[in-house]
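Key result, reporting period 2: structure in, sequence out.
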């Protein structure tokens, strides 16, 4: 007989504009069956003499005067992975509670319920329901099945690690000569310590380090802007393996979508604070820099593999270029009706043509089989154009990724 898994806990954190709103939201969460609910002024620990944070500047001064709700919900009888579709609906419901009271859901954490209950900060505790649990429905909801993928892409392998590293360094030397003249994201490739360091075990590890040097943890900075011409040169270089070129192109996709992705993740917060979304200068300039490189990237279209052209079409859409030639090319991609690729192509086509209604229709189809899209779209504050742009890099990478791995393993 299978052992019953330990109860799972989720701690939610909500930010509300004042104490009354926080207490009202806390009461709703308690009514939903949450075991512990506390209400505290934002940055509570800055005012506790025994705390490390006592007297220190706020880490989030925009929320000065706001209140926070911390709430622990317990779910038992199921493994965590089986609970995911239900927990997703719970996150949507909790976020709606925050919005209804003028605030936003700021985050949360998960773990074994006993552990989370033991470390729960009880300062400001307003509701305690010993042993309370949120009862999942029977049967548990399940994620929808994904439609079949399109035909396999001819992506080409990523190349042996040593060969790819050597080719990348050669491009850096050709463009910049030395580490002193190279951008920060490139200079480490020309450093003597790197040249005599331990070899990479896989090409993926090296390309991951390169992407992190260009945009640390995915955050665009001035360094990212400066590195765009270098990445373009790598994608166009004949000595870089086709699969590695495609991986680098997908990196450009992520960088170009960083602004819209931030807009989607912060939509409820921005609305609650009465602000207007403005992407950072680095995000804007990165996308502009990529847009300037598009003609060069497309100039090799006749020599590229079909997967590269597919990624280039998505990149063109992300850069806000309404290109009828690229739009016409989409019809040639192998995207059978009813396939996941057909839905991705529909989104790219809508973005390329500036068709907002088409974007909404494509997002509706994607949300029907991709739950993460449905969760993000649940907020009325999320701009659907930004949502479409924010999800495109992952959609493209997941579509072309199997082809890269398959050819690499041959």
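The corresponding designed sequence is given below.
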């Amino acid at each position: 007989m299978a052992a019953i898994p330990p109860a799972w806990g989720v701690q939610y954190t909500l930010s509300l504009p004042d104490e009354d709103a926080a207490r009202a939201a806390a009461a709703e969460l308690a009514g939903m069956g949450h075991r512990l609910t506390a209400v505290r002024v934002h940055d509570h620990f800055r005012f506790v003499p025994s705390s490390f944070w006592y007297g220190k500047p706020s880490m989030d001064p925009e929320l000065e005067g706001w209140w926070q709700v911390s709430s622990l919900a317990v779910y038992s009888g199921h493994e965590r992975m089986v609970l995911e579709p239900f927990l997703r609906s719970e996150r949507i419901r909790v976020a709606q509670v925050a919005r209804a009271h003028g605030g936003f859901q700021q985050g949360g954490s998960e773990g074994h319920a006993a552990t989370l209950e033991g470390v729960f900060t009880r300062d400001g505790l307003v509701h305690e329901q010993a042993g309370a649990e949120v009862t999942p429905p029977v049967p548990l909801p399940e994620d929808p099945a994904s439609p079949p993928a399109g035909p396999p892409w001819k992506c080409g392998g990523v190349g042996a690690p040593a060969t790819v590293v050597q080719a990348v360094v050669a491009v850096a030397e050709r463009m910049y000569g030395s580490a002193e003249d190279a951008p920060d994201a490139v200079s480490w490739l020309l450093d003597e310590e790197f040249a005599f360091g331990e070899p990479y075990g896989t090409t993926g590890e090296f390309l991951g380090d390169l992407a992190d040097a260009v945009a640390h943890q995915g955050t665009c900075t001035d360094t990212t802007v400066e590195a765009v011409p270098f990445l373009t040169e790598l994608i166009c270089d004949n000595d870089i393996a086709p699969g590695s070129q495609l991986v680098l192109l997908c990196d450009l996709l992520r960088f170009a979508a960083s602004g819209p992705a931030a807009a989607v993740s912060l939509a409820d917060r921005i609305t609650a604070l009465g602000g207007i979304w403005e992407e950072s200068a680095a995000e804007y300039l990165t996308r502009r820099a990529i847009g300037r490189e598009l003609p060069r990237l497309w100039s090799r279209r006749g020599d590229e593999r079909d997967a590269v052209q597919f990624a280039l079409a998505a990149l063109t859409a992300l850069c806000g270029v309404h290109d009828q030639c690229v739009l016409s090319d989409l019809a040639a991609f192998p995207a059978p009706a009813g396939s996941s690729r057909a839905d991705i192509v529909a989104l790219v086509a809508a973005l390329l043509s500036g068709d907002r209604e088409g974007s909404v229709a494509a997002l509706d189809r994607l949300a029907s089989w991709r739950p993460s899209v449905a969760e993000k779209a649940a907020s009325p504050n999320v701009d659907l154009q930004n949502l479409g742009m924010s999800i495109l890099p992952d959609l493209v990478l997941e579509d072309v990724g199997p082809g890269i791995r398959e050819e690499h393993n041959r």
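Residues 406-410 have pLDDT under 50 and may be disordered. Strands lie at 8-16, 36-41, 67-75, 104-112, 125-128. This case is discussed further under Risks and Mitigation.
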